[in-house]
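Annex B. Sample input.
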Amino acid sequence: MILAPRHADSIDALNKWYAETKNADWGNFTEIKKTFNSVDAVGNDRYVFNIKGNKYRLVVLIFFDVRTMYIRFIGTHKEYDKIDCATV
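Annex B, continued. Sample output.
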């Protein structure tokens, strides 16, 4: 996974998230919670993951029926507070 140098301290944590999700076979939100207890459902098929102890937020659009995920946002907690995570 590649990330802009301005967030270089998040690379290891994001790579760990990626490694855990790339082969995941989640069928619903409950199954995600078994892997990532701190994940939140925010509506419109979007889920927010805490990265690096909640320093960063990752918003992912997930379509369970076709097992497909799209990263919609990666940023600091402060940057996350400025977006509408249900529509990003």
